[in-house]
Design goal:
Elements lengths: L5 H12 L7 H9 L3 H8 L7 E2 L8 H10 L5 E7 L15 E2 L2 H6 L5 E8 L15 E2 L2 H4 L10 E6 L1 H8 L21 E5 L16 E7 L5 H11 L8 E7 L21 E7 L9 H8 L3 H4 L5 E7 L11 E2 L2 E2 L1 H9 L6 E7 L3 H5 L11 E3 L10 E6 L4 E3 L13 H9 L9 E6 L6 H13 L8 E6 L2 E6 L3 H10 L1
Parallel strand pairs: 1-2, 2-4, 4-6, 6-7, 7-8, 8-9, 9-10, 10-11, 11-14, 14-16, 15-17, 16-18, 18-19
Antiparallel strand pairs: 3-5, 12-13, 19-20
């Protein structure tokens, strides 16, 4: 391979870098340039290798930035600014007056070439971005970057470390005040990612041009309900956002706080992604109320959603987590679907994870009696045409709560579930199950057949697709019941 022509090596390097995450471009380029002399000559003159001016776990040094700028020639760049709290700022700390290192000016000088830009608000500890106070200088980032004119910038990320959220929330200033791009010229901005920050960081003048919005809430110190309201309020002024991604990781849902959002609409949203991982709820509250009330109004404000993708975990074995469990059932999925009331939803894609993947992938025989049971009523959203469920866990799925009698009229959660068990027409045409074990899904499928027959809509159903160990089996409508019998007896 060392004797390959330079043109061939150049082509190989260009294709190789496309399979690498942007944060690893630089390390990949350096590795290729240190293989041998011929590799180095080609790597140094391959601009695509040097277009990402950021690293995954540390700040990039000034000499590396200058090298990348030179070797990338005129190619579009992926840049990142790391801003830090600084010990000298004390109680006068302002989010906009953060400390930056020596690469800031070098990066700003390349703004005409930016394709993607990330602004990191790093944590209290310098190690969070591999920086120390002696390398940092306090400055007003918004003023320093006021002349940015990025005509080809398409994606902007604004990411705040969870510890910084706590630091600012407890101080005299608020992270909400930080709007670093208010004076930027970015006519082609289409996609925005916000983590642990409010939508005010993205000025309203840019909202009408966005097509893709991702909001991440990370850590236990962020007020989840305020963030959800902020997301809904962000809809004011948005007219072209077609994809909305929401991620909640390691959060505490506080059922005692339900701020009312202003009237915001996301009428243009067609695809909605919701991820809830490693989240908990303090106190003896019921998750059906918490999640339903937290996400209430989503469907009303996003009347055009036709594709909904939900990812959630089932918690640890034996864990008492009121956010995801209700009367022994994993009710996260039910709560999110009921809260939305999506009227034109056609595609529901569900991914179910374990909080400890190794534990769930290798559950012992003694744990089989405690496998998770996920609640998914068949009639929760009658408009769904295509359902896909993927999980590597050994779990069961049920469509109702059984023969439980409602003896207490104040048990509103049970009343909500029972209401969704009422027979009504179902529009399902396909069901795809990508699972390791099928027995836990068979009763739900059998009930689906029965309910669709009773409502005279079984003829709408087309096929059941089973994917196990990479192998796909398609079961036509007329063979589904026979498949259920065989699956139970196998």
């Amino acid at each position: 391979m060392l004797s390959l022509p330079s043109e061939t090596l150049h082509s190989i390097f260009e294709n190789l870098i496309k399979s690498v995450v942007p944060e690893e471009y630089l390390s990949t380029a350096i590795a290729l340039s240190h293989v041998c002399r011929s590799f180095r000559q080609v790597a140094v003159h391959c601009p695509e290798l040097w277009t990402c001016l950021k690293r995954k776990s540390s700040c990039i040094e000034l000499d590396a930035v200058e090298t990348c700028i030179e070797r990338s020639r005129d190619r579009p760049l992926d840049v990142a600014f790391s801003l830090h709290p600084h010990s000298t700022l004390g109680q006068d700390y302002l989010p906009s007056t953060m400390a930056g290192d020596t690469v800031v000016q070098a990066l700003l000088s390349t703004n005409k070439r930016w394709r993607r830009c990330t602004i990191y608000l790093c944590g209290e500890e310098p190690s969070s971005c591999d920086a120390t106070d002696d390398k940092l200088v306090p400055f007003h980032f918004q003023t320093t970057s006021s002349g940015v004119d990025a005509p080809i910038l398409e994606h902007l990320s604004f990411l705040a470390h969870p510890s910084l959220t706590r630091l600012i929330a407890n101080g005299p200033r608020k992270l909400d005040e930080f709007s670093p791009i208010s004076n930027w010229v970015i006519p082609n901005l289409r996609s925005v990612t916000i983590q642990n920050a409010l939508s005010s960081s993205i000025p309203s003048k840019f909202r009408a041009q966005l097509t893709d919005l991702e909001v991440r809430v990370v850590g236990p110190d962020v007020n989840v309900h305020s963030r959800i309201c902020d997301i809904l309020e962000f809809g004011i002024g948005t007219t072209s956002v077609s994809t909305l991604r929401l991620s909640f990781n390691g959060c505490r849902f506080n059922p005692a706080a339900y701020p009312r959002p202003k009237a915001g609409m996301f009428s243009s949203v067609r695809s909605l992604y919701i991820e809830i991982l490693n989240c908990i709820q303090p106190g003896p509250y019921d998750n059906l109320s918490t999640l339903r009330r937290s996400f209430s109004g989503f469907g009303l404000r996003m009347k055009g959603v036709v594709e909904l993708r939900i990812t959630f975990d089932v918690g640890n074995s034996g864990e008492e987590n009121n956010l995801i469990r209700w009367r022994g059932l994993i009710s996260t999925l039910h709560s999110l679907l009921h809260a939305g009331r999506y009227t034109v939803l056609e595609i529901l894609d569900v991914t179910i994870l374990g909080r400890n993947q190794q534990e769930n992938a290798n559950s012992s025989h003694d744990e089989q009696e405690n496998i998770p049971v996920v609640l998914l009523p068949h009639c929760c959203i009658p408009s769904i045409k295509n359902l896909r469920i993927e999980t590597a866990l050994d779990l069961s799925i049920v469509g109702d709560v059984g023969d439980t009698s409602i003896s207490d009229s104040e048990d509103l959660e049970l009343l909500f579930i029972k209401r969704e068990e009422v027979l009504r027409p179902i529009s399902l045409e396909t069901v795809t199950l990508t699972v390791s074990k099928v027995k836990g899904f068979v009763p739900w499928v059998r009930q689906l057949v029965s309910k669709m027959r009773e409502t005279s809509c079984w003829n709408r159903f087309s096929k059941l697709t089973m994917v196990r160990n990479g192998e796909q089996e398609v079961i036509p409508r007329d063979d589904v019941e026979l498949w259920c019998d065989d699956a139970i007896n196998s």
